[in-house]
Amino acid sequence: MSDYQHIRVEPISTALGAVIHGIDCRSDLPNPVVDEIRKAWLRHLVVFFQEQDLEPGEQLAFARQFGLPVKYPMIEGMPEFPEVVQVVKLPHEKNNFGGIWHSDTTYLEQPPIGALLFAKEVPEVGGDTLFANMYLAYESLSTGLKTMLGKLIVVQSSAKTGASRSREDRLSDASAVAEQVLEAEHPAVQTHPETGRKVLFVNYGHSTRFKNMTEAESKPLLEYLFAQQTRPEFTCRFQWAAGSLAMWDNRCTQHNPINDYHGFKRVMHRISIN
């Protein structure tokens, strides 16, 4: 018997990820439907909706049913919808935005709980996104390493993302803001506030070192953890189509947009929620 009465949920892997069928994301959804989508989101960590037709205002309205939309740091949003960021890669550009494994903006004191990414225009080939499950990354560690990590604080920095920014500098509010470095300290192991499960909360994109340790001292353990987090059996891969919408839980996932579509244009609309 299905756990859902109002939606149909189709997992895409046993690690994480599911497609939700039977939803028009433009609609003002009844509370029981919103509750079931949230249930599927917490269970599968990232959920996908296909064949949607969303304008920025409609995407914002859908996002508000699951959290409070917030501005992305250091990047200017759309003039009428500042919480909506256009993520664009043009055919001549080499790098893609965020093109490394990462959780979003963990250099903030309060990183967003999630994000919604909508595909407006996709390349003819390539452009998939990988997602990884940080519950599994933690749970498969040895007892000794779990104990050690439970005592560590990790320093997260926006400065580490420079290699993958691509159009970020051109989207920035001002050069002074673009040059600003944001840092925050977070426990290396966190407990998800809604599920109670423990999460390995370091990431290649932003984690620079452990508190009271140098970068050189931190590097061997961080590199081991980065590899642990992206083991193939902890991941899923999503192939975008125009009209696809993804919503991921930033508290327990990482993602990596694959940069394998040089010569093609890709346009996405992104919203962070708290």
Question: Would you give an account of this structure?
Answer:
It is a single chain. The protein is α+β, with helices and mostly antiparallel strands and 274 residues long. It has one domain: Clavaminate synthase-like (Double-stranded beta-helix), CATH 3.60.130. The protein starts with 7 loop residues before the first strand and ends with a strand.
Give the amount of beta strand, in percent: 25-35%
Name the poorly predicted regions.
Answer: 163-177
| Class by SSE composition | alpha+beta
CATH topology: Double-stranded beta-helix
The biggest beta sheet reads: 8 strands, mixed
Write the layout of secondary structure elements.
Blueprint: E1 8-11, E2 18-21, H1 31-44, E3 46-49, H2 56-64, E4 69-70, E5 85-89, E6 114-121, E7 129-133, H3 134-139, H4 143-149, E8 153-157, H5 168-171, H6 175-178, E9 183-187, E10 189-191, E11 198-200, E12 207-210, H7 215-229, E13 235-238, E14 245-249, E15 253-257, E16 266-273
